[in-house]
Model the fold of this input.
Amino acid sequence: MTKKSINNIGVFTSGGDSPGMNAALRAVVRTAIYHGKNVFAIKCGYEGMINGDIEQLNSRSVSNIIQTGGTIIKTARSERFRDPQGRKQAFENLQKFGIDGLIAIGGDGTFHGCVALYNEFKVSIIGIPATIDNDIYGTDFTIGYDTAVNTALDAIDKIRDTAQSHNRFFIIEVMGRDAGFIGLETGIAGGVESILIPEVKTDVNKLCNQIQSLFDRGKTSNIVVVSEGDDAGGAYEIGAKIKQKTGIDYRVVILGYIQRGGNPSAKDRLLASKLGYWSVKHLIDGKANVMVGEIGGEIALTDIEDTFGKKKPIDMDALEMAMTLASG
Ligand code: F6P
Done:
């Protein structure tokens, strides 16, 4: 089969922003230009594709962004792209600009869109995993996850100070609609007393007994980290249940969107640079409908369907370790 030649590359960020998206964009633009290709930014993800909000970039367009959070080409969650008519319009705009290859930077919603575009119009697309949730199969880490964990950890450390000073019980809610990666790692690193994640059914009675016993044994500050997608509810709901059963008073902190912002960590900048670079190399080399990830330090290509069709497992041994370390 002859290799399709790629001359005009469209790049977009889509879904929830994550720190390191700009570093990935910079790597895509610089690598594409180095190889003599034209690069176009599609603004606001699929929304911009539908609206024709597309602009050619040069090397200077991505100066001084490797260190910044957010995404300079904006992002969105597009309802219109779920509709075949929206996708047709998007494809027509790609044709208008002569775009013959796409790099999609985002999470599972973004990759669902890639599959639709590929199946319906055979557009060559390479995905780059970027979401703070880390819930993408085919890569050890997603861009933004490391920064989000460090942001949440910094907050937990600060809350520990006041919990300690007041002998208080805190319930801290971290992001993770469907996945507990942020909850698990911040919980372990923050030395918290309990971690509740969507992958494990929460036994509220057991949790109440644990918290009660910690107080009974003289532990003065107690912190529970809960991922927003936990089956027992959010932090307020869980706090109310514990108070009802034990009488122990609590304070709630919802970390929310601060986890999505801020300057990317060194680890995220390195990952973003690497994945951005390899995405272009593979696109030029004729690959399509795959995501570029990193597994065990090596670049790995995964069919885009598998990135959301298969589930990345959570480390259950790490959870057990966390509970053992918190039992003192
Ligand atoms: O970026 C992922 C995520 O942070 C999820 O954990 C969260 O549920 C979701 O985005 C909320 O984002 P939005 O309000 O942008 O839909």
Q: What stands out?
A: Residues 16, 131-133, 175-177, 228, 260 surround 6-O-phosphono-beta-D-fructofuranose (CB under 6 Å). The chain has eleven helices and eleven strands.
